[in-house]
Amino acid sequence: MQVVWQNLYDTSSSADTINLYSARNFLEARNVTKDPVKDVNAASDLLETYAKSLVVAAAMKYFGVDGPNDEPSQDAFRLNVHQYRSYYVQTVLADLIDKCVISHVREINYDVPQFKCILCPKVYKTKKGLQRRTLAKHSLETAATTQQTTSQVAEGSQSDAIFNYTRCSLGMCMVAKKFVDARRLGNWKRLIRMYKYFLLHFKASGKQKYSYQVLRLLAKVHCFLSPRLAYDLVWNRFVNKTGRVDGNIEVDREVEHQNRVFKAQCKSLHGKITAKSVKRVSQFAQELDECLKRIDTEAGLRQQSGKHTRPDISEDVNALAKEMNRVNLFEYTPGRHMSSSRSFPSSTLGSLNIADLYRWMKTTLNELSRKYVFRQHCRRE
Prior knowledge:
By secondary structure, this protein is mainly α. Helices cover 61% and strands 3% of the residues. The model is unreliable at 141-156 (pLDDT under 50).
């Protein structure tokens, strides 16, 4: 969530077309702030509405319609061409994703970075060497002005900042939606694959602690732990108490639910909390809660389901999608820029330095391999 907000949420972009912040103003989601951690539920609801609106707007652009309920004017289903509806859906979705989500330029630069002086043909390996050369041999103000002018001309004549922003927004929203679905389904094999993708985004966004924890988890699963312990670590992380397919929650969250029962029983101590009383409460808190639930069931008392009711957001999604379609967010227009910034990268991973990433991963894995906890697990296995 923080990575999405860092890349897409800009409070100075209220005058721009429908982006994440202007969508927040359009939907009047005033409880959403610059820090999504302050109200995670509100930020999640805004991101879900924004993601669905982007999907609907992309479909409206692809099929050439003005509203979600209109008949497609292009790329419609034809029995003599597509024969099967399943084949038609797969073909249309692949083409839609290729046009609206996937960037056709290389997202990650695998080349070794080179710093070239703009006033002479000399090339340097480090940025500091280029700065010393510019300061010693050339005029620093002239070099900076020339570089800025060249960059502005290239961006203004070739790129479309609004189209790049929309495409990156749709891609990140789909990744976030996929992550939520995988958690609800309890599919940790799918989550492990997504964590590999998250690692790149965390490093590109400067989230060092998140990057370290993700790399540590992947290292434990694929390298340091035995197959049995790695399997337990991957699959023994969810619990399903409802029986629904998408009713999985994390074990840590279930422990917090159980702690709520324990804290409620501790209130009956009226401040007389000792180690002996806490131990006594912890031994019977869960059994007492189950006993009370059985009594309520036998007495015919209706228990709270614990399921959060979600309002119907179809009207908000359709209204926001029509506004997006009106300003042609998914139409590439060279030279179009945003009011808050003249450029936006075609990929949020463009700032990732592969050489630095490789060195960091190698150093971190060497440090993790020397930790006692991994060797201890291997000996026990």
